[in-house]
Amino acid sequence: MPDSLPPELTVADLADLRRQNQRVTIVDVREGWEWEICRISGSLHMPLDHLTGEARMLPKDEPLVVLCHHGMRSQQATAWLRRNGYDNAVNLSGGIDAWARQVEPSMQRY
């Protein structure tokens, strides 16, 4: 992963990082009911309304890829994280919906 992280990654970029076994923390900011429907294996569930209280648990020494359903909530979360010292936070463009369509088509969608 480059030293200077872009504000967003595509789902193809994330899939490549995972295939290369790159260290990355995937932070899913969706609600619990959304998480129950589908999720990226190994992702950390931290609903958006819990982020400010739980962010201290997130690593600062590896990329944080933040996702939601389509990328809007995760974009807000990424901006908040970056303002609060997490320069390693990036938004997953298109969210879990894009992941399901482009990377893991067998994943349930909503």
Question: Can you describe what's shown?
Answer:
With 110 residues, this protein is of the alpha/beta class. The chain has a single domain, classed as 3-Layer(aba) Sandwich (Oxidized Rhodanese, domain 1), CATH 3.40.250.10. The chain is built from five helices and five strands, in the order βαβαβαβαβα. It is globular, with a radius of gyration of 13 Å. The termini are far apart. The mean pLDDT is 94.
List keywords for this structure.
Oxidized Rhodanese, domain 1; single chain; alpha/beta; 5 helices
Give a quick summary of the entry.
The protein has helices at residues 11-19, 32-37, 51-54, 72-83, 95-102, and strands at 8-9, 25-28, 44-45, 64-67, 89-92. With 110 residues, the chain is of the alpha/beta class.
Report strand order across the widest sheet. 1-5-4-2-3
Tertiary shape: globular
> Level of helix content?
25-40%
Residue runs with pLDDT of under 50 for 5 or more positions:
none
Question: CATH superfamily assignment?
Answer: Rhodanese-like domain
Query: How many helices?
Result: 5
The name CATH uses for the topology is: Oxidized Rhodanese, domain 1
Second-tier CATH architecture: 3-Layer(aba) Sandwich
Largest sheet: 5 strands, parallel
Q: How do the SSEs run, as a string of H and E?
A: EHEHEHEHEH
The end-to-end distance, rounded to whole angstroms, is: 31 Å
What number of domains?
1
* Total DSSP E strands: 5
Rounded to the nearest angstrom, the radius of gyration is: 13 Å
Main CATH class: Alpha Beta
Specify the structural class: alpha/beta
Task: Name the beta content range.
Answer: 5-15%
Q: What is the typical, i.e. mean, pLDDT? A: 94
